[in-house]
Write a structure and sequence with these properties.
The complex is a heterodimer of chains A (about 220) and B (about 400). In chain A, about 30% of the residues lie in helices and about 25% in strands. Chain A has about 220 residues and is an alpha/beta fold. In chain A, strand 4 and strand 5 form a beta hairpin. Helices cover about 55% and strands about 20% of the residues of chain B. In chain B, strand 5 and strand 6 form a beta hairpin. The longest helix of chain B has about 40 residues. Classes of the chains: A alpha/beta (about 220), B alpha+beta (about 400).
């Protein structure tokens, strides 16, 4: 279970200017739930994702995952938490363009120093599941937007994380590819993964397999 | 079996190097050049020092020269008797020698006359004499250094050489053998023959000598004996081995200065790279670190990868630089640089750099380059890796 308790996040742009990204946010997400965080750009959706993934720390309040204080984890433990629990699909995919598909998917496994066969099996499995196996040796920069996203999804799943986080996943895709991504989400939901998506794409609204849609506005959850 | 060393990290590091191949090629080039220059200096320095030390060790403790109008003149042989009267002097010998300019080749030969086997050439002469092949004394024969032999051979003098005397007449001298010395900085351009023959070629009278060499029983007394000689013969210049060492060192240091200029340029470029590295990473490099952290890499995973990356580059460059330097100095005989260091112009014959392997030199160059580069790569990466991943990706 993921819990955000009285979360406030303030970004200090410089000595005088501050931006309040989140203000006193409370949110609880059950295991296996699929949540869509919707709202305009700059509303604070991505900040929530970032806090759940322990990519940043709240200015005040607590983030708890399975009753563990994620927001208080030292940096190295936060990395381990991400490695073991989180699969993050970034808006711009954040792949390394000069590496191949296979090498990009391998990245989260590298710190674990797995056996060659174990790594190969895991990579093979996610490449098959997300239909990117035929491009395994291609450089990421040579792929289309949809293919790059599938690589990003495969990379996010290679460690079999419990929580999948996607930040504006369809922002760079056309409608057909966006619908394909929604099908992938359905598959992931069927695997009982907790999924949190930040988006303002109407395609995600009113989907039958989405458990909750939460609207964020000016750093606050609209009830 | 699971390897303790994370080969995936090493593979990633190699990939990272290849991804920035142009930038890294430039770094490797500068790094290799720096290592090459630095080790070449040390290799040549060590070899020349070895040569000088070996040569100076065998030289007489004191040399006495007659001075007139600031130039060296022939000295009276009778001075030998006066010097032998000084307490502590065990031996004093009048030497007859000079420089013979071989115009056709444009080089100077040092022609030395011998009565007995001089100390500094003792080993090889004894060997030659014992073999019963040649006896120089009282003959029109000479022993020549390897450099002299090479030049004479190039000019078709394989069995004899014709010296032109001051009166314009020729003196034919047979080549009895090639002088094979332990060190060749000094002896390479040397010709040895009987004193009588030298006197004839240079027209030096019987009562005169070029200089007088003095041996002292207790080396600690060399300076005292030298002072006494100077007092007895104020018109002479008294040179001790110590003076010679200083003189050689001065020439050596001066010549090193020329090379230093070249070295400083390379060093400057190296430090620009170091500065560039340590002053921060590019936005692309920062983002990559942020992404790696976001997908679960710890700070030490990032630093390990950066360590491998910089260590591979620096160790490769260092090894390449040392290997090139070894080949350049000892196989190719250090063209260009050797002339700067040895300090001899074309008037001097070739000499070989003896191989002197000094592990300390290699360690010194290693510690002057590799750790600096590794640190300059790791420190900025550490700064970025310890920031919040979210801050870096944004």
């Amino acid at each position: 279970m993921i819990e955000l308790k009285n979360i406030t996040k303030v970004y200090e742009l410089n000595r005088h200017d501050k931006v309040i990204a989140l203000e006193n946010v409370n949110l609880a997400i059950e295991e296996g739930e699929l949540i869509v965080l919707k709202g305009a750009s700059g509303s604070g959706k991505s900040t929530i994702l970032s806090l759940i993934a322990a990519l940043s720390k709240p200015t005040s309040g607590e983030v708890m995952v399975d009753k563990k204080h994620i927001s208080k984890l030292p940096d190295n433990f936060a990395s381990i938490y991400r490695r073991d629990n989180i699969g993050f699909i970034f808006q711009k995919y954040n792949l390394i363009p000069t590496l191949s598909v296979k090498e990009n998917i391998l990245l989260p496994l590298i710190p674990l120093n797995p056996h060659a066969k174990e790594a190969e099996d895991k990579i093979q499995a996610v490449m098959q599941r997300f239909h990117i196996e035929h491009k395994k040796d291609a450089m990421v920069r040579q792929l289309s937007g949809g293919e790059q996203q599938r690589v990003a999804i495969a990379r996010a799943n290679v460690n079999n994380p419990k929580i999948i986080i996607a930040d504006e996943p369809t922002a760079n895709l056309d409608e057909k590819l966006s619908e394909h991504f929604i099908e992938i989400l359905r598959e992931l939901k069927a695997l009982n993964k907790t999924i949190i998506i930040a988006t303002h794409d109407p395609l995600f609204f009113g989907l039958d397999f989405v458990d909750r849609e939460i609207e964020i506005h000016n750093g606050k959850i609209l009830l | 079996m699971k390897s303790k060393i994370n080969l995936y990290l090493i593979e990633f590091a190699i990939n990272a190097i290849l991804r920035a191949k142009y930038k890294n090629f430039f770094i490797v080039t500068i790094f290799t050049l720096l290592t090459f220059l630095l080790t070449s200096i040390f290799f040549i320095t060590n070899s020349v020092r070895y040569e000088l030390d070996s040569t100076l060790e065998a030289l007489p403790q004191i040399t006495v020269q007659k001075m007139k109008a600031g130039r060296q003149y022939e000295i009276d042989v009778s001075v030998v008797d006066g010097i032998l009267g000084i307490a502590g002097v065990t031996q004093a010998e009048a030497r007859v020698w000079g420089y013979y300019y071989f115009e056709k080749a444009g080089v100077n030969f040092s022609v030395m006359g011998i009565n007995e086997y001089e100390n500094q050439y003792k080993a090889s002469f004894t060997e030659l004499v014992e073999s019963g092949k040649h006896t120089l004394y009282g003959t029109s024969q000479m022993m020549i250094g390897q450099g002299v032999a090479k030049i004479m051979k190039m000019n078709y003098y394989k069995e004899y050489f014709n010296f032109i005397k001051p009166d314009g007449r020729l003196k034919k001298v047979e080549i009895a053998g090639v002088f094979d010395s332990d060190t060749n900085l000094e002896s390479n351009d040397m010709i040895l023959m009987s004193q009588d023959l030298v006197r004839e070629i240079f027209e030096i009278e019987e009562s005169k000598a070029t200089d007088i060499v003095v041996h002292v029983a207790n080396p600690e007394e060399t300076t005292t004996v030298a002072s006494k000689i100077k007092l007895m013969y104020p018109d002479t210049r008294v040179i001790t081995t110590k003076d010679l060492k200083v003189s050689y060192q001065n020439i050596f240091d001066y010549k090193s200065g020329l090379f230093l200029a070249l070295f400083i340029v390379t060093l400057f470029t190296f430090f620009i790279i170091i500065y560039d590295k340590s002053s921060g990473l590019s936005s692309e490099e920062k983002k990559e670190i942020g992404v790696l952290k976001a997908i679960g890499w710890r700070v030490d995973d990032v630093l390990k990868e950066k360590f491998y990356e910089s260590f591979i580059i620096s160790l490769f460059s260092y090894t390449l630089g040392v290997a090139l330097s070894l080949a350049y100095v000892y196989l190719l005989k250090a063209p260009l640089l050797r002339d700067i260091f040895v300090g001899y112009s074309q008037l001097k014959t070739d000499f070989e750099l003896p191989f002197v392997f000094d592990i300390q030199t290699l360690f010194l160059v290693f510690f002057l380059s590799v750790p600096i580069y590794v640190a300059a790569t790791i420190i900025p990466s550490w700064r970025v890796a310890t920031l919040e991943a979210d801050e870096v990706i944004r």
